[in-house]
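user: can you give me the structure for this one chain? C-alpha cells are fine.
assistant: on it. calling the predictor now.
[tool input]
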Amino acid sequence: MYCFDTDVLSAVLKRNPPLHLIRRLAQVPVQHQFTTSITLGEMLYGASKHGGPDLEVKVREIVLRAQAVLPFDEAAAEVYGPLRTTLELAGRRLDEPDLRIASIALSRDLTVITGNIRHFARVPDLRVENWIES
C-alpha cells in the first residue's frame, strides 16, 4: 500500500505527465492508493498561488477520485513525537510537512512514493520509492 507525496501527484497533473509514472499508477488498485491531508494542502496552495480556481478543481478531482486522503491523527501524532526527537538528536532534521507525511505513512505501514528520496531516507524504518525517475 502506497502513500503518494506531493511531487508525484503534481507530476500527474502536468500537461505531459511521465508515461512511465501513469503506467505504474494504473497498476496499483485504487484501494491501495493513499495520500495525506498535508499533500492535499500543499497541492491546493500551489494551485491557488499559480493556477487559480480551475487548477484547484482539477487537483481536487485527481486527488479525491484516485486516493484516500489520510489525516494527521492521533496514531500519526504518536509516531511524530518520538520520530522528531530521534531525527533531531541524530542531526537529521526533516522539514515539518515531510515529517508529518512520514508519521502518517509509518502509523499505517505505507510506502511513501516520492521524488524526494534524500529527505525521506532519513526516517528510520520508512519504506520509500521513487516512481518519478524511470
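assistant: here you go. The longest helix spans residues 74-89. Strands lie at 2-4, 33-36, 68-70, 111-113, 128-129.
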